[in-house]
Amino acid sequence: MKNDNQRIVITGIGLTSPLGNNLADLREGLLNGKSGIVHTEIRHMGKVAAGLCHFDEAKHQSKKMRKRGTRAGAISVYCTKESLIDSKIDFDSVDKNRVGVYLGITEHGNVETENEIHDLYNSHNMDVSLWSHHHNPRTVANNPAGEVTLNLGITGPHYTIGAACAAGNLGIIQGAQQLLLNEVDIAFAGGISESTETFGIFAAFKAQGALGHHEDPSLATRPLDLDRNGIVVSEGGAVYTLERLSDAKKRKAHIYAEILAYHSNSDASDFVLPNTQRQIECMVQAIKKAGIEPHEVDIVSMHATGTTQGDIQECHAVASVFNESKKTYINASKGFIGHAMGAAGALELAGNIPSFTDGYVHPCKKIEKLDPECAINNLVNGEKVLCDAKIILNNSFGMLGINSSLIIKKYSEEE
Amino acid sequence: MLTNTEVRTKVLDIIADIALDDDVTGINDEIALREQLDLDSMDFLDIVMELKKRHKIEVPQEDYPRLATMQSCVDYLAPKFNQ
């Protein structure tokens, strides 16, 4: 039996996504099958499909600090400040030494490095004395989290968690762990991505034959469909305010959910290709740590990026774990918002959390021609379904074989 | 041959692009820029970098104090603009 200091709860959510800049807009888009994917021009690539965010960068940042920082930093600041506001924490009275910032990233620094090299060759005639003195503070891996501490005057720890496309889950897990270790009292934790500003990510996926494209951008990525097309790169972020239940209760906070359990493991088998067995083990271990049975999970949010092998391997894994779970619904978000890289896990979890209150499971983007290898039970295809959800399992996987499964529960006083 | 007023305008253009949140129109030329605007050491490096990029003017590190006020900027930079 856990006491309230051993239970971690979500008391604030701040996000920006291709479907909007707050949870309500994201949820509305997912429930109603809206696409946030558009065509945009990327240096050296021309027209590509991407998921872009349109939050007001000046809402929480001065113009000078925005110019000095990075897009990833701007996303992080926006999401964290929105999360803090949502939490209704009286931040002036908080000991800032006891606040931590833990943000998952797939990569960081590509954008600034590409820009500097572009200018070096195209504007600066290879004169490296014109290389920006801002390059290092912009490209250090802790930049996104560090910009948050500068903005909010946080003097506790801050760092990013590099975990490829599992990073959104891993950021949340890191925050929860630091609270359990009593290192901090408030953790701003989640994942962010600025990847749509770097041509290298797009070019690499294209070289790999994995970049999604379609004349209609809303059809550029269709996970689990035989016409899946591939990955659409998106930017975005989701930052959660995490607290120990004891602290949340003291200030009578609104509690979105409790973090019930998590597990992370490694494939140790390939740089890129996923591994069904390790994914199964990841989910099974998370479920075991939660002290529940698979059939008690109401919603599984799949990673499902829209690549043939990724979709099939994960569907086999999910089918293996939940085959006997008659009432476990399965969905995926990337058909609507694309693949938000380091933000994906955190954003996709956010998109599902309102299921605890609105009583629906949001659908996958309509799968017209379901890949027979992906024909798993209770796939929510194209139309939302009614469900009194109490437990969600969120999968997020990444390159180099990193897997993560995070389980959250609708909050109730009883454990 | 640029006049001191023209040099001042070019310097002010640079500062305006760096002190983005400040109103630079009312700068007192005799008072340190840092006392009037939200500028830190990274901003002064930006000023030095922009002088080099826009006007090919080099400011060696030992001369950075010469950029303290608008008047000292003009006094120091006018000969360089007119070289």
Give a description of the structure.
- Chain A is α/β, with parallel strands linked by helices and 415 residues long.
- Chain A folds into 2 domains: 7-250, Thiolase/Chalcone synthase (Peroxisomal Thiolase, Chain A, domain 1), CATH 3.40.47; 261-409, Thiolase/Chalcone synthase (Peroxisomal Thiolase, Chain A, domain 1, 3-Layer(aba) Sandwich).
- Chain A has helices at residues 23-31, 63-68, 71-87, 110-122, 135-139, 143-152, 167-180, 199-207, 245-250, 276-290, 308-322, 334-337, 344-352, 355-358; strands spanning 8-16, 37-42, 46-51, 99-105, 158-162, 186-193, 233-234, 236-244, 257-266, 299-302, 329-332, 360-361, 385-386, 391-398, 402-409.
- In chain A, helix 11 links the parallel strand 10 (299-302) and strand 11 (329-332).
- In chain A, helix 3 (71-87) crosses helix 6 (143-152), helix 7 crosses helix 13 and helix 10 (276-290) crosses helix 11 (308-322).
- Chain A is globular.
- The mean pLDDT of chain A is 98.
- The radius of gyration of chain B is 12 Å and the shape is globular.
- Helices cover 55% and strands 0% of the residues of chain B.
- The mean pLDDT of chain B is 97.
- In chain B, 18% of the residues are buried.
- Chain B has helices at residues 4-18, 33-36, 41-55, 70-81.
- The A-B interface holds A 62-64, 67-68, 124, 129-130, 132-134 and B 18-21, 38, 42-43, 45-46, 49, 52-53.
